[in-house]
């Protein structure tokens, strides 16, 4: 366990070095957040009763999404991992008495968390100070907050497990570009990163909610805003845990198979 | 103890001719060729030995190292290292070996080398005492006290290589695999690295297996040589044996004036340009003294020198002999 912790630490420290990138990220995410909110405001003014979420719930969803972006952005891949597979540098990682899957998993968690830690505070603070209904509000009660926290962690680990499957696919495809583009486009849409899932037609929603991608960011954010609550929230967390186990196990099986037939490239 | 028996490894390589038409064709019908990287490779290396593993590019050196370090599994054959099959018992195996791939890096690019070392300490579960002792000794021997405080990306190749070697020895491995450790290094760094490898082998009784194209490495470091070519082990012997194979050949360099060499079958003139000739003498057929006497009798000699074959030349002639 200690080895994975220090692995986490070195990656985390390395991630904290990129301060300029963090500031640029904060500015971009503010701009993006404001633009989305202004766009939705225009829609809501034409008739708020046509929309599934209250406007203040929606703004909370958007600010949460922007502040925690690095936890859930699908396109935040660790290029070191792709490089090590395609260039053969993986030879060194295989020479360590560690489990490769765990090592990469921890590395991803650390990269994303160090990113989030640098960016989320300024966004949360400013978004909380905005006037109602443009601000981010607190969860309705303690129970809601606790459910959100559990769901957030489950969703985050699921996100990393799905990234792991994409990394491992590079063993088979040699070039990760295609897999990256395909997965990013598809998953951004299906996970509610582009448009929150409640905005889709009911039938589509049912399908989305059964796929693993809604369990990543949509479930915890909707629990936070109070859109999903009570028994529904518990059921949604159940779905999250189900997918987490399924994807984690398939990732492990996949890497086992990949390593059996691995050919380390280059002399 | 390292034992390899009848190891085979084949790679499947997609192949097509150059050109647009061929590229289109290969979309539908790919042709593969099979490259036999290793064919029935067998050898045994005892504890504390230092072995040079040589062969031309693409001969199968790196493949063998990858198999021995548990990174790759062979198609068939047995490999047992200290009682374990490397690719089956990978985690236990790799904690007892150190590996340096000269063309890759194991140091974290953005952080000081010392941080990478600390990480390796935890990865290999090295105790504080052992770590302190080993790292301070490595740092002293390799003279990298100042260098380890610098991020890896700012190091020169020679500095980085010294850190790489230190990194692979922090856990006191029983076996050290060095895949081209002196590639691209200047003379000073090369000598520093060689001296260090010698010291580790002598003092810790670490088994060292070294692949290189630099014959001076081999000459300075190893007693025993394994020559591999086209996936087969061609020669397993000492450096001296290798040299004596070719010691009957001497090269005479002659500077002369006047007429050119008359054609003859007594000696073989390999180069003769503008009064400067190189003559290869096989001492089993004609002694050097006889050859010199003959040369002085046919041309007006200004200067003459005799040289035995260098290790490089010996190796080249071996490659030729085995047609690799």
Describe the structure.
The complex is a heterodimer of chains A (267) and B (324). The longest helix of chain A has 32 residues, at 142-173. In chain A, α2 (19-45) packs across α7 (100-129), α7 (100-129) crosses α8 and α8 runs antiparallel to α11. With 267 residues, chain A is an all-alpha fold. Chain A has one domain. Chain A has helices at 2-16, 19-45, 55-67, 69-72, 79-87, 90-94, 100-129, 142-173, 177-190, 202-210, 218-225, 230-260. Chain B has 324 residues and is of the alpha/beta class. Chain B has 2 domains: 2-6 and 45-243, 3-Layer(aba) Sandwich (Rossmann fold), CATH 3.40.50.300; 248-308. The radius of gyration of chain B is 25 Å and the shape is globular. The interface between A and B is medium-sized, with 27 and 33 residues.
Q: How many domains make up the 3D coordinates of chain A?
A: 1
CATH topology of the largest domain in chain B: Rossmann fold
| Main sheet specs of chain A | none
Global Rg of chain B: 25 Å
How would you summarize this macromolecular structure in one to three sentences?
The complex is a heterodimer of chains A (267) and B (324). Chain A has 267 residues and is mainly alpha-helical.
What order do the helices and strands come in, and which of them pair?
The complex is a heterodimer of chains A (267) and B (324).
Chain A: H1 2-16, H2 19-45, H3 55-67, H4 69-72, H5 79-87, H6 90-94, H7 100-129, H8 142-173, H9 177-190, H10 202-210, H11 218-225, H12 230-260
Helix pairs in contact in A: 1-7, 2-3, 2-7, 3-7, 3-11, 7-8, 8-11, 8-12
Chain B: E1 2-15, H1 20-28, E2 31-45, E3 50-54, H2 61-68, E4 76-81, H3 90-94, E5 97-101, H4 113-123, H5 128-142, H6 157-167, E6 175-179, H7 187-204, E7 207-211, H8 215-221, E8 224-229, E9 232-238, H9 239-245, E10 249-257, E11 268-273, E12 276-282, H10 288-298, E13 300-308, H11 311-321
